[in-house]
Specification:
Blueprint: H1 10-15, H2 17-32, E1 34-35, H3 45-51, E2 62-63, E3 66-67, H4 73-90, E4 94-96, H5 102-113, E5 119-123, H6 139-143, E6 145-149, H7 160-170, E7 174-178, H8 188-198, E8 201-205, H9 210-214, E9 227-231, E10 242-246, H10 248-262, H11 268-281, H12 284-306, E11 310-311, E12 320-324, H13 325-329, H14 333-342, E13 345-346, E14 348-350, E15 364-368, H15 370-374, H16 379-394, H17 399-413
Parallel strand pairs: 1-13, 5-6, 5-7, 7-8, 8-9
Antiparallel strand pairs: 2-3, 4-10, 9-10, 11-12, 12-15, 14-15
């Protein structure tokens, strides 16, 4: 099987061998390992090319047609295409494609609708939220009065009645639905109802599941939420960056919040790559891709459970799952992450709901299927992947055992080439 894409780094190779070599080694690592980090993906050659192109040279503070610099005729073409495609993909009334990444996108929405010390409600980091959803070490926890919700102890799923009760008690100005480690489908309609009952601004952060929402594999909250943020580099399979979509009523406030509120010049080469990513996601083949991500994820969860590994909430509806390695194998998340890494399998340690261990060395690992699916793997391949994972966990004390697995993993991955 031939690789899908090549990388052209001839000038770099000549000018800076140290960086060239490190990039080549990183590419080799990506190609020879099993990448299970659910927030990662592999972008197409077209996205890569747009990212490495000359709009990076331009300053274009402002928005299309209203710039603070001259010479933006073609940057306007790029940004307008990105905006129109984004709106079409998510059925959005308004899109701002300038946020540099997911965290600044969330910050821009908060700044647009809240004052310091206002109350907002988001999910606890330790049960699947993001740092920017109110964690004390993050600006969101420092600047605002954060009320945090979690999952139900028994089902390990969101308990909407409980969230409603908490919202009625605390009257948040903004209610946020968004997760980095929640494996289940979200009832966005219910969130909207709760927000309406307490008069809260209704926001979703779909960074992880955006590709699934765009493809209609997971419900898309954009048409009826006040604002939705997403990164473009996770399941959406675009460049590192983010967008904010919102109702027309909030468009001006949110645009002003992004620029001049908190950002300077947009990264126009990344805007170009976002536009390419949206075009790719509008193709019928992207729907198949998103469906396959979930099929693979369910298959992987089943295989792992068959091997006696406990999966939080007993399975998954989306691209990711949490494995309770402490309960199942007596390994901490950190030990499991390290053992897997030595075997060429990449994941991240993660807290599980009601974890008795610390976030630095929690009970779980978080794994997912976006990258493997991009490489063309199907359900049957998940059986192999699950065996590698189980074998590596069981060989965690044996360096030579893990080394041997790494070679097997490499031989397996070569069957799914992507970048040359
Ligand atoms: C990844 C993620 C972010 C942050 O994105 P960065 O680009 O890393 O700043 C925000 N929210 C959620 C839910 C995420 O998963």
């Amino acid at each position: 099987m031939a690789a899908k894409y090549g990388m052209h780094l001839d000038f770099l190779k000549e000018e800076d061998t140290e960086i060239y070599n490190a990039i080549q080694s990183e590419k080799q690592r990506q190609m020879e390992g099993i990448e299970l980090i659910p927030s990662e993906n592999l972008v197409s050659q077209a996205v890569l090319e747009a990212m490495g192109s000359v709009p990076t040279n331009k300053y274009s503070e402002g928005y299309p047609g209203k710039r603070y610099y001259g010479g933006n005729e073609f940057i306007d073409v790029i940004e307008n295409l990105a905006i129109e495609r984004c709106k079409k993909l998510f059925k959005a009334e308004h899109a701002n494609v300038q946020p540099l990444s997911g965290s600044p996108a969330n910050m821009a929405v908060y700044f647009a609708v809240m004052e310091p010390n206002d109350t907002f409600m988001g999910m606890k980091l330790t049960e699947g939220g993001h740092l920017t959803h109110g964690h004390p070490v993050n600006f969101s926890g420092k600047l605002y009065n954060c009320v945090q919700y979690g999952v139900d102890r028994k089902t390990e799923k969101l308990d909407y009645d409980e969230i409603e009760k908490q919202a009625k008690e605390t009257k948040p100005k903004l209610l946020l639905s968004g997760y980095t480690a929640y494996p289940r489908e979200i009832d966005f309609k219910r969130f909207r109802e709760i927000a309406d009952k307490v008069g809260a601004f209704c926001m979703a952060d779909i960074a992880h599941i955006a590709g699934l929402c765009a493809a209609g594999v997971h419900e898309n909250p954009v048409p009826y939420f006040d604002a939705v943020t997403t990164t473009t580099h996770k399941t959406l399979r675009g460049p590192r960056g983010a967008v904010i979509m919102c109702k027309k009523d909030f468009a001006e406030k949110i645009d002003k919040s992004v620029f001049p509120g908190m950002q300077g010049g947009p990264h126009d080469h990344i805007t170009a790559a976002k536009a390419v990513c949206f075009k790719e996601a509008l193709q019928p083949s992207f729907k198949d891709y998103a469906k396959q991500i979930v099929k693979n994820s369910k298959a992987l969860a089943k295989e792992l459970m068959d091997k006696g590994l406990r999966i939080v909430s007993n399975g998954t509806d989306n691209h990711l799952m949490l494995v309770d390695v402490f309960k199942s194998r007596g390994l901490s998340g950190k030990e499991a992450e390290l053992a897997l890494e030595k075997a060429g399998i990449y994941c991240n340690k993660n807290t599980i709901p009601f974890d008795k261990r610390t976030p630095w060395d929690p009970s779980g690992i978080r794994i997912g299927t976006p990258v493997l699916t991009t490489r063309g793997m199907k359900e049957a391949d998940m059986k192999e992947v699950a065996s590698f994972i189980a074998k590596a966990l069981d060989s965690s004390k044996s360096s030579s055992g893990l080394e041997a697995i790494k070679n097997e993993v490499k031989a397996f991955c070569i069957n799914f080439p992507f970048y040359r």
